[in-house]
Specification:
This protein is an alpha/beta fold. 38% of the residues lie in helices and 19% in strands. It has a 5-stranded mixed β-sheet with strand order 2-1-3-4-5. β1 and β2 form a beta hairpin. α1 runs parallel beside α5 and α3 runs parallel beside α4. It is globular.
Amino acid sequence: MRLALQEAERAYEEDEIPVGAVILLDGRIIGKGHNQVEQLKDPTAHAEMIAITAAASYVGSKWLYNADLYVTKEPCPMCAGAIVHARLQNLIFGAFDPKAGGCGSVLNIARNPHLNHKVNIINGIEETKCSALLQSFFEKLRKTNKIKK
């Protein structure tokens, strides 16, 4: 999670919502990413999506069996769907997203019994640090009146 937090800090520095993701396979980093939605003008440029793309490229397959995704915030429904489709084994996340979480808070796509793959979920890892980074970012946005609607 420490490496995912470093990715989230990069996003923070780039004025992106500070979410970072790292994918490990057999103890090796095979993909990482941080939010780049604003920079790329791409609503799909979430940390998880970037990390999954990098990992799939690294292994040369769309399947990421036996890989673990560490992410600082509970994935949204879009990212949760990608996690299931990539067949990741484990999802480890820090902060919950009670407004848009796709892995337990609002929906639980990663464990949906109707889908063909279920991802193991471990949550609350480094939750305080992950939450603090997000809170700091949104406080900064409110102070500078840069909250987008």
